[in-house]
What we know:
This protein has 187 residues and is α+β, with helices and mostly antiparallel strands. It contains six helices and five strands.
Amino acid sequence: TEESESLQAYIRRLDLTMSAANVAWWEIDMKTGNVIFDERKARMLGYAPESFQNYRDFTRLVHPDDYEPMMEAMRNHLNGSSVHYDVEYRILTKAGGYKWFRDIGTIVQRGAEDSPAKVAGIVIDISAQKQSAERVSALLAEKEMILKEVHHRIKNNMNTMESLLSLQAGTISDPGAIGILHDAQGR
């Protein structure tokens, strides 16, 4: 039918867009911890999709420095302190390095007593942006160091010139010439 074809075309466009943006979707059952997700999420890390059944299969790979902030972001969303779950973290790839991800999600289903039953969202590979930001920071730090060195050298050169003018003023007796040298020294 025309409606079915339109839906399939929409799904293809959405999939191509997500692939181009390096984005994957995910969903967690809060009661069991089981996950369903776009296989692209596992492939971004170099793992087979079958490696991940429960959210702990992902969280065990999160960099130790990022684990608690990631979990706190989820707790804050689940308890209503934040409108969305939104966090950046590093996660271990199968190759042994870390990739940066931005994870954004929200409660999509509630259970008994309005408790969160399912959370769904997207994960975005932001490694390239983080690497670019690190390069910019390194270049800025290098620029600051060079500027400090240039200022230091200029100050040393000026002190040397001041000393030379002072020595020269001590060797002459003409008060006008001494005044000119002292004036130059002051400048």
